[in-house]
Amino acid sequence: MLRALIVIALAFATAVFQASFLSHLPFPLSTISFPMLAVAYGIAHDRPLLAVGWALVAGATLDLHGMLGFGSEITALFAAFFGARFLFLRVLTNAGASARFLLAAAVAIVHWFTLAAIDGARVIFGAVPIIVDLSAASILAPLRQALVNGLLLLLVFAIESAARRRFSRTFLSHASSPHAFS
Fold first, then answer.
1. How distant, in Å, are the alpha carbons of 18, 37, 61, 151, 162 from that of 97?
2. In the chain, which residue ranges form alpha helices assigned H by DSSP?
3. Quick check: pTM over 0.85?
4. What are the tens digits of pLDDT across the range 66-119?
5. Between the CA of residue 174 and those of 12, 81, 160, what are the distances in Å?
6. Distance from C-alpha of 141 to C-alpha of 149, rounded to nearest angstrom
7. How far apart are CA 100 and CA 118, in angstroms?
């Protein structure tokens, strides 16, 4: 229960941080998406409930700050979750660095194209397009976001691996000692 509350609080806080602060910064920082990183991280670690919980809470929070209407970010993050989970289980079966990078890139691309489809459906019913236009920035947006989020996921895994190596000797040093503790 405590772990679920921590995930909910972190998902809410990072989504608010992303919507209110990161989206107004220049290129590499404006394309960072914590919900997409959490979805890719949860899939790569085979923790789908973490990924779905993060997608639900962060998606609802981003929907409150978004311009596409409530439910669009949740739908896009769930589509990204299911698409990336399918890819990771069926295509990217090796858990190496390239598979993790492609997983984060797939999450970003599926998320962007789902939001573009929702925006396109709104345009059919008479709304003004928000995401899709014919500028170079709009065409390159999913690729830039895929690149940045893929590299960030690799950075997260590198930090996690370094911390695990560093602290495994400190906290698990008794495992190699000849003395048995009971």
1. 26, 15, 30, 10, 15
2. 2-20, 27-30, 34-44, 48-65, 72-90, 97-124, 136-171
3. no
4. 777 788 888 888 898 898 888 888 887 777 888 888 888 989 899 888 988 888
5. 39, 40, 22
6. 12
7. 27
